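User: Second chain of the day. Same drill as before.
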Amino acid sequence: MLSLTCKTAIKAVIYLASKDDPSQKSSIVEIAQLIEASEHTVGKLLQQLVKDEIIVSNKGPNGGFFITLRQMKQPLINIVESIDGKDIFKQCGLGLSRCSGTHQCPIHNQWKVVRDQFEKICKENRIIDLCEPLNIGLTHLIG
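Assistant: Same format as last time:
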């Protein structure tokens, strides 16, 4: 359902939010290494996340990316919509462009249940909620 880029963006934001001091700036290189992603991809998606005010960046010798407490209280869906778009939760499970309730693909009804549940998860979970289990070692960001 989510693009690889979107999954990478979620990991990058969770990484920034889970730092001991989330206002401490991180470089593209640092983030890419810690989430095992391409620097090029991470750089492009971080720019999009800054543009959509999901994270913050400062330029210059002491620059980097960070997240504020207010931003940490955003729901996960903000990241998903920033990277994959607002229609991600309306897409057909088989990728058909004209799938709908009246013109269904073979898995329409089952996929709709899964898609709606995942949308609910993304709306209910805030960025900060996903950091706590990471910080105490119950979850991880790399394979």
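The chain has a mean pLDDT of 93.

User: Great, on to the next one.
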